[in-house]
């Protein structure tokens, strides 16, 4: 993973809400992104044989830009793990 990508800051702006963003909207946005990226129905990841963890799906290459999505997933997980962003990810 490129170091420059770890230094990129992601921002979320909700144009439909007049609430101020004190971190909750950003956390919600990251949680939604993580939920969709790791959702087995989207084809990037699949449940492992023991049905308790995810692994890259062998057919993910059929998805356009799959490598960019996987890289984004890695960046988000890394940022969560080192505490740069708050998001609900359960790791095993």
How does this model look, in words?
The protein has helices spanning 3-6, 24-37, 66-81; strands at residues 45-47, 54-56. The protein is 37% helix and 7% strand. The chain has a two-stranded antiparallel sheet with strand order 1-2. The chain is mostly helical. The relative contact order is 0.18. The protein has one domain: Hect, E3 ligase catalytic domains (Hect, E3 ligase catalytic domain fold, Alpha-Beta Complex). The protein starts with a helix and ends in an 11-residue tail after the last helix. The longest helix has 16 residues, at 66-81.
Give short descriptive properties of this protein:
two-stranded antiparallel ribbon; mainly alpha; single chain; 92 residues
* Helix amount: 25-40%
| Low-confidence parts | none
How many strands in all?
2
Number of helices: 3
Give a topology summary.
Layout: H1 3-6, H2 24-37, E1 45-47, E2 54-56, H3 66-81
Antiparallel strand pairs: 1-2
What is the gist of this entry?
The chain is built from three helices and two strands. With 92 residues, the protein is mainly α.
């Amino acid at each position: 993973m490129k170091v420059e990508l770890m230094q990129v800051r992601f921002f979320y702006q909700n144009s439909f809400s007049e609430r101020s963003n004190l971190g909750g909207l950003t956390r919600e946005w990251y949680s939604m992104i993580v939920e969709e990226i790791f959702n087995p129905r989207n084809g990037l990841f699949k449940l492992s044989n023991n049905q308790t963890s995810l692994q890259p799906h062998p057919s993910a290459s059929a998805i356009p830009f799959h490598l960019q999505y996987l890289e984004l997933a890695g960046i988000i997980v890394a940022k969560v793990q080192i505490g740069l962003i708050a998001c609900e990810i359960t790791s095993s």
